[in-house]
Amino acid sequence: MILAVSTLKNLPSPTGGYRGRFAPSPTGPLHAGSLVAALGSWLDARKNRGEWLLRIEDLDTPRCIPGATRQIQAQLLACGLSWDGEVIYQSQRHDVYQRALERLNGLQCLYSCTCSRQTIANALAKLGIETPRNQEMVYPSTCRPAHLISNPTDSLGQLQQAWRIALTQNCHIEFKDLALGSQSQNLNTEVGDFVLRRSDGLFTYQLAVVVDDAEQNITHIVRGKDLLSNTARQIYLQEILGYKRPEYLHLPLVLDEHGEKLSKQTLATKINTQDKKHSLMELRKAATHLGLQDLPDGENVTIAEWLLAATHAWRS
Ligand code: GLU
Ligand code: ZN
Q: How far apart are the CA of 165 and the centre of ligand 2, in A?
């Protein structure tokens, strides 16, 4: 197939400053699943003539692998997925998360908790609630005080106790996913008061991602469907912290032969970007997974040309 090279000038202009992002955790190199998230978010940003930022979510240091960040960046670049602006590292942003935690504390919606997983499981068992194996336990508010107060600021950093957000009553969150349509979750019955700072002192993904998406003025969050069930929690935090709600688009997951989500923990094979030919092959697989059709399939197409065609084909 011969590619008619057109420019992005032909694409519709954005309605208002689109800004997207890709936010990998450096727990290993990119695999087929993370490439789908990278490509989908990149295409959505380019199609909307927006910016695409790269944020390294390296908060959970025990799970991070040395060198993974560098590998991820090299893989993205080999696939032509270049990012705008400076890369942000969550591991360097503790102060920002701490300030958000202090703000929430000032709003009297934080409380400390020393429950272990076992304590929570026992409390649930007493209530006759059994959690299916692959589901997270709904926290039964064991440590929630009858009257919420602002805690002394210096206690927020104390180890050996987690800090949970006290949900208001009737936290029924509804949102529209651009791909999946109407979504809803009742945080009280499906999640419970969730942790913002762990007992080992680490800020949780939920808090950090909300603070960063807001601080970076992210308007569109395009990511894998495995993160869909976190969205209601994130919207809840946005509302309490007074942040704007971004648009959400969750992409189809890549499953392995057992029907399990590909992940770095299950040692999913890294994508092969050793040369242009292999990078293009990986991009083509990711594009097929995203449902893109009629993309240039010849050997001679450059990655830039292919990406341009994919951008035109994206959600048109
Ligand atoms: N860091 C998360 C992950 O790698 C993605 C966060 C997000 O896109 O909201 O699974
Ligand atoms: Zn507790």
A: 12
Return the sign of the alpha-carbon dihedral for residues 64, 68, 69, 72: negative
Looking at residue 50, its pLDDT comes to 97
Contact 219, 247 (CB under 8 A): yes
This model's pTM is above 0.85: yes
Distance 300 CA to ligand 1 centre (A): 34
Tell which residue, 210, 206, 216, has the closest CA to residue 242.
210
Cβ–ligand 1 distance for 207 under 6 Å, the answer: no
Q: What are the pLDDT digits (tens) for 164-175?
A: 999 999 999 999
Dist. CA 136–CA 158, nearest whole Å = 25
> Ligand 1 test: best mutation among 64, 204, 205, 262, most atoms within 8 Å of CB?
205
Nearest by Cα to 211 from 61, 104, 71:
104
